[in-house]
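Why do we bother with holo predictions? Because pocket geometry can differ from the apo form. Keep that in mind while you read this record for EPU.
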Amino acid sequence: MVVENNVALQPYNTFGIVARAQRLVRVRSTDDLLALLADQEVSPGSGTPAFVLGGGSNLVITGDIKQLVIKVEINGRRLVEETAKGWVVEAGAGEDWHDFVRWTLEQGYPGLENLALIPGTVGASPVQNIGAYGVELQDRFSALDAVDLQTGQSFTLNAAQCGFGYRDSVFKHAPAGEKGLGLAGRALITHVRFWLPKSWKAVLGYADLDRRMADSGISSPNAQQIFDWVCAIRRAKLPDPAVLGNAGSFFKNPVVTAEQCRDIIGRDPEIVHYPLPDGSIKLAAGWMIDACGWKGKHVGQAGVYEKQALVLVNRGGAIGSEVMLLAGAIQESVYGRFGIRLEPEPLVV
Ligand code: EPU
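The structure, written out:
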């Protein structure tokens, strides 16, 4: 097992934050991982838990990482099963998410097109139940394989066992946390499988997609056309992490009761909001941050993207504490005006 010491993490987090890992091990297969866990000298099983690094696209690093960093580089994608009703496709956790989505479409398995161009790896996709343009990962998820970092046991979880919620899953909660049986820091996801039904239907009805449909005059787009539109919308609206470091949406869209929402609308009739099936209301955090005048503002080298206030960006050489100072100032001002406490989406370490 090759342990690299004092490794620069800047290339491994899409925010481009400068930090180092004291020790880092690359894992390219489940066998690699099992060998690592059996290795008494480097094993994370005893002492401080390991830190699992995927594509680093949903991460704010606020200092050097002292735990052993396990960098997941498990590749491979395949058709597991085809039935009369659909396809089960699988990818290794280290595969790039967008490349995997493109591959499924090239193979003729539609269903993931609305999730095009989301940065990160396949293994990270269930952790925060990625979602965009009306589709969430949980809508296409079949099962995943993982390894328990403490016991070395392999296990498989179905959707119900992953406890998916809005940008949430069991992998985001501590084992003894408020939500009970969390797997944060405990499980390393090695493979993810998706169920893509042959009875494919376009998921539209999202304002940005409807605009593309109207502009192009295409009334029943196929999966490839939706993929192309989603890529174009995201490229126009969201910064490319290769050019301007960022971690996607920095805060979750808060969900409030109808009563709270009535109060807020009374004061701010323009606020963008979406009623949910259970009667609660989701508020557009980007709109609220924008309304507080944050677009284009910055703290040191951490800034608010000028085309989408929900995205914080690295203007060059930002450190994690600058990002968190900016995030805290935004939370304060949104709380002051709307009485809503925004919750960060990325993991802060
Ligand atoms: N808005 C503003 N000003 C802003 C930003 C947004 O007025 O600066 C308004 C927009 O005009 C729109 C509304 O707020 O009416 C919502 O904005 P948008 O459609 O851009 O979506 P979002 O709610 O900000 C969410 C996801 C994104 C996902 C998009 C599209 C979250 C936290 N974010 O963003 O996911 O791509 O919808 O489905 O749910 C991510 O999680 O990293 C991510 C990028």
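Helices lie at 30-38, 97-107, 159-162, 207-216, 223-237, 258-267, 285-291, 320-338.
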